[in-house]
Design goal:
The protein is an all-alpha fold. The chain contains 13 helices and 2 strands. Strands 1-2 form a two-stranded antiparallel ribbon. About 5% of the residues have low confidence.
Length: about 325
């Protein structure tokens, strides 16, 4: 055996040992004996919901990130007061509806076996694939938290944050700049409420009503689409105006054209720390898919609760 191959095998074994040590009881076939119907119930329910409500996938991806990024994939986001915190109030109801549908069906098939945490991660995984996005290994066996997570202003990225603030936020959680940019590509699906970009298109600064980083015609279109946002807070625009229902790298191409909806998106296209990755992903969708899948796996394994560190909730919105 060559020294290079021995080195690769050693690295692989170390990765496996590390996963086992850190994530305890997680595995790729965790429910094969305790809830064999889990894959079928998951696939049928997720597919049905997405077909009836096409915005579900983007909503669930946001729910997944809002649950995991604060520090742990433990379904704490489903508990009050975390669910009703300011930063989570805009989470679409379709995501919660899907989780509760799945939990209800699974409780009939295998009571008190499948955690709400695993339901969130597995749903995000399946919906990503349905939209044409990349796979990532689906490790299962998480337990649910006993209580909500205390949310603070710097817990999750906000539309008005600077690139430096977003880099710092992800850095505290162990993510590189490259991983942060890759994950930001999730904005290739979904929408943003007009209230999130109102300042950028109506009152940007004392010298400019609109952020000059916008494509001028695009900014005009946003102002027109959002003109009644004060009277109708539900008004929203697609994050990717080219292919809003498809998971592809058009989002990164849009950033290069001045078509980034949110301030954090436009900032990445011009910042020297992130611009190279934006350009790289705009040119190579396969590379972005690879990086995005790896980053999603990393997010899905954050702060795992296993054994007595958590519980299997009988209802996802209330601890036992």
């Amino acid at each position: 055996m060559s020294s290079d191959r021995r080195h690769c095998l050693l690295l692989l074994s170390l990765i496996v040992v590390s996963l086992t040590a850190v994530h305890g009881r997680l595995s790729l076939d965790y429910y094969s004996k305790t809830c064999p119907d889990f894959p079928n119930i998951l696939l049928s329910t997720v597919t049905s919901k997405q077909l009836s409500t096409p915005t579900t996938a983007a909503a669930l991806l946001r729910l997944f990130l809002h649950d995991c990024l604060p520090g742990s994939c433990d379904s704490s986001v489903l508990l009050s007061p975390e669910r009703s915190s300011d930063i989570n109030l805009s989470l679409p109801g379709d995501a919660f509806d899907l989780i509760f549908r799945l939990k209800s069906s699974l409780e009939i098939s295998c009571p008190s076996v499948v955690s709400c945490s695993d339901i969130i991660v597995a749903s995000a995984h399946h919906l990503l694939v349905i939209l044409g996005g990349p796979h990532f290994p689906l490790y299962l066996g998480r337990k649910d938290s006993f209580s909500p997570f205390p949310i603070s202003p710097d817990t999750l990225p906000l539309p008005d944050m600077t690139v430096s603030e977003v880099i710092a936020l992800f850095g505290k959680r162990g993510f590189s700049v490259r991983e942060m940019v890759a994950l930001s590509g999730a904005h290739t699906v979904g929408f943003s409420h007009c209230s999130s970009l109102a300042k950028d298109i109506y009152n940007f600064s004392s010298s400019a009503a609109t952020d000059p980083r916008y494509n001028a015609r695009f900014a005009e279109g946003l102002r027109s689409a959002c003109r009644n946002y004060k009277k109708d807070p539900t008004l929203a625009v697609f994050n990717d105006i080219m292919t809003p229902g498809k998971f592809d790298n058009e989002y990164f191409k849009n950033l290069e054209r001045g078509l980034g909806v949110l301030g954090t998106d436009r900032g990445m296209a011009g910042d020297e720390r992130t611009k190279g990755f934006v350009e790289m992903y705009a040119k190579d969708q396969d590379l972005w898919f690879k990086d995005f899948g790896n980053a999603m796996l990393k997010v899905s394994l954050m702060g795992i609760k296993a054994g007595r560190a958590g519980e299997i909730r009988r209802r996802c919105d209330v601890s036992n």
